[in-house]
Write a structure and sequence with these properties.
Blueprint lengths: L16 H4 L2 E2 L7 E12 L2 E9 L12 H16 L12 E7 L14 E9 L2 E4 L3
Parallel strand pairs: 3-4
Antiparallel strand pairs: 1-2, 2-3, 4-5, 5-6
């Protein structure tokens, strides 16, 4: 997978390559690993933080994980992975975007052969409120 870069969040999050490659338990049971965090992007709702995960089973060619099943995983990742990593000090995050991708994709770059699922959430009262795109 090469070198994994994790961006620092306002709360001082730093993820090393060994930790970043550990599989995360998600409701569907598919293999999901943390890839990176993109911060400082302004979305339609204000400050947006993106948490991107590798999920090879979502691949359109040979994958076994349909979008409907991956939805529960994205909800789970927002609540259990993303929210605890948002800082309570500094600029408040208005939107969290969870991305599942079947292969590493440079942020903002079109890679037509890649499969990616995205969901947007509003962090509110310790919960992720689905906003949809």
């Amino acid at each position: 997978m090469g070198r994994v870069w994790a961006y620092l969040l306002a709360g001082g999050l730093a993820v090393g390559a060994a930790q970043a490659q550990a599989a995360l338990d998600v409701p569907s049971g598919q293999v999901v690993t943390f890839h990176d965090t993109i911060q400082g992007e302004h979305g339609p709702s204000g400050l947006t933080v993106r948490f991107r995960f590798l999920a090879p089973q979502i691949a359109r060619d040979g994958g076994t994980m349909p979008a409907i099943m991956a939805q529960a995983d994205m909800d789970f990742l927002c609540e259990t992975y993303a929210l605890p990593r948002l800082s309570a000090i500094g600029p408040q995050v208005s939107q969290v975007v969870i991305t599942l991708m079947d292969r590493p994709v440079p942020f903002g770059s079109p890679v037509p052969e890649a499969t990616q699922f995205f969901e947007a959430y509003r962090p509110e009262n310790g919960r992720c409120i689905w906003e949809g795109f």
